[in-house]
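Researcher: I'd like a candidate sequence for this fold, 561 residues long. If you have to choose between options at a position, lean toward the conservative one.
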């Protein structure tokens, strides 16, 4: 039910509320949205532009809060996303793409990381898809201009068994663990590497390498911890996210088949990263921290698992500063909670500055539970078994992307939905407004909102350039409102009820257009203004309820008596 800021009798109030409800219902019925922008509360949503790179097609889109395209980077139709994309502070675009999804090492596909300009001019590219290695999922631009990348590397059956892998867990007779490398785009030289293969442990065969107590060595990775079984068991880790913390010189990895996030030291040399000492924290390339699933290091049970095939693990430190309540927290999209729900986890960074360690408590890394999980107000409406992202915004809101649904939403700190968007692509093709798009039909790896003040936007044309969807309702965004809009404290209307003259005033410089319509939609007044008030002659208006539209947004009501 909508509220109104009127001082009137109870009978008249009930009548007006009935009329308003009917009026809004008619608007909603005639403007039902199934794709594109679904809802938007202007005064609560973060002001910015959202970057998406949906699967099964080749374009990267930057959209405004009305769901309009403000920029698009097109590519050859032969290329599709290899997941991650980033808008750099100079306006260039860093993205991962692939030619097709042929088997690793088949020579069929091209797996490329590239940089293009704002105007889509190719500036740099790097390809890796050999018999033994292949790029996948994510990259991270470092402050020095180098780029961290994730790749699979081939280990034969003999290599895996020699390192302690159980033969029963080698269905495909090959294993592809992940490794991380840093490349200098100036010469495409690998300047640093970290291989999980250098940090293994196993407790099943004392005659093989890496034998020891898994429980006593959480800094090492159990080569026999396996959740991905069957025909794709070669993909042991499936690392799907990488993030860098400049202040700590640490790297965070998201490892969904371990149901964990890991943190490693980047300050090491490549040689130190292959060992167990050296670097700022004197642990070499061993894990500094892991969170989500104590079973993976021999502790606890299934009941102690708190991450379920996670995605987009990162530190919250982009576009927010140390005064923000979530600054430097760890953010994780938790995909596969019970009852087909997904949540967004934000928790205090457990780094101990005094000890320069992520401390263990009773053999476990903290936290052992999440106390502030963020769910959709109707939890079962927000679920994705894979993909997906979460972002802390400068105004305290959270942007979530349920990748399997192609569904983006922004939640306020009170868990109110203030913006919703359904990616309007069905199996890669632009869909008409009104289309019903099912699960996994508009896959979207992530969404990221850049604030309007981001340096990448300086001097750029960000005017609306249409919609992704076909036959869009171009007036839908302007028609949106909320109960709070109707009683906005920014704009005062008096007297109310009025008879001959109405004064509209405000206390900011954001009002530039005012119009008045009746309940049938007939426009009675329209003006552009640079003042902080407007006097309107209403002496010819018949008694009834009228609507003031401010900046083309349904905003205020008043009564003529």
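Model: Candidate sequence:
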């Amino acid at each position: 039910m909508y509220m109104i800021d009127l001082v009137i009798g109870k009978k008249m109030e009930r009548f007006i509320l009935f009329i308003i409800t009917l009026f809004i219902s008619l608007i909603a019925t005639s403007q039902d949205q199934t794709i594109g922008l679904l809802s938007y509360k202007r005064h609560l949503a973060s002001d910015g532009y959202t970057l998406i790179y949906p699967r099964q097609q080749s374009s990267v889109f930057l959209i405004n809060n009305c769901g309009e395209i403000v920029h698009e980077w097109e590519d050859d139709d032969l290329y599709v996303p290899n997941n991650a994309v980033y808008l750099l502070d100079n306006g260039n675009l860093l993205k991962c793409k692939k030619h097709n999804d042929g088997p690793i090492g088949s020579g069929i596909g091209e797996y490329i990381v590239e940089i293009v300009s704002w105007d889509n001019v190719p500036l740099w590219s790097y390809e890796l898809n050999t018999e033994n290695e292949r790029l996948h999922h994510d990259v991270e631009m470092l402050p020095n201009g180098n780029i961290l990348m994730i790749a699979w590397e081939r280990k034969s059956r003999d290599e895996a068994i020699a390192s302690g892998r159980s033969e029963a867990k080698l269905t495909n007779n090959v294993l592809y663990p992940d490794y991380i490398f840093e490349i200098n785009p100036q010469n495409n030289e690998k300047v640093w590497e970290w291989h999980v293969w250098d940090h293994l442990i196993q407790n099943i065969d004392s005659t093989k390498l890496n034998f020891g107590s898994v429980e006593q060595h959480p800094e090492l990775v159990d080569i026999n911890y396996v959740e991905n079984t069957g025909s794709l068991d070669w993909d042991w880790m499936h690392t799907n996210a990488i993030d860098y913390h400049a202040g700590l010189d640490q790297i965070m990895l998201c490892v969904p088949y371990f149901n964990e996030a890991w943190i490693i030291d980047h300050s090491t040399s490549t040689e130190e990263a292959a060992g167990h000492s050296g670097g700022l924290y004197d642990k070499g390339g061993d894990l500094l921290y892991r969170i989500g699933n104590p079973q993976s290091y021999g502790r606890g049970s299934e009941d102690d698992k708190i991450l379920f095939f996670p995605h987009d693990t990162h530190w919250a430190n982009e576009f927010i500063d140390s005064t923000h309540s979530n600054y430097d927290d760890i953010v994780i999209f938790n995909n596969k909670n019970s009852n087909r729900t997904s949540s967004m986890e934000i928790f205090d960074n457990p780094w101990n500055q005094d000890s320069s360690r992520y401390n263990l408590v009773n053999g476990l890394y903290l936290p052992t539970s999440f106390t502030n999980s963020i769910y959709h107000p109707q939890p079962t409406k927000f679920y994705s078994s894979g993909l997906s992202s979460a972002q802390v915004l400068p105004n305290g809101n959270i942007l979530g992307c349920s990748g399997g649904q192609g569904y983006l939403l922004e939640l306020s700190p009170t868990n109110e939905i203030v913006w919703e968007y359904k990616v309007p692509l069905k199996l890669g093709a632009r869909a008409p407004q009104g289309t019903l798009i099912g699960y996994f039909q508009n896959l979207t790896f992530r969404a990221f909102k850049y604030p309007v003040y981001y340096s990448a936007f300086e001097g750029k044309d960000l005017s609306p350039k249409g919609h992704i969807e076909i036959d869009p309702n171009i007036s839908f965004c302007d028609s949106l409102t909320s109960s709070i809009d109707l009683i906005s404290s920014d704009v005062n209307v008096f007297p109310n009820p009025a008879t001959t003259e109405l004064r509209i005033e405000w206390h900011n410089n954001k009002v530039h257009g005012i119009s008045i319509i009746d309940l049938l939609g007939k426009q009675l007044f329209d003006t552009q203004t640079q003042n902080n008030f407007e006097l309107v002659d209403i002496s010819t208006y018949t008694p009834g309820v009228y609507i003031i539209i401010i900046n083309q947004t349904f905003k205020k009501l008043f009564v003529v008596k």
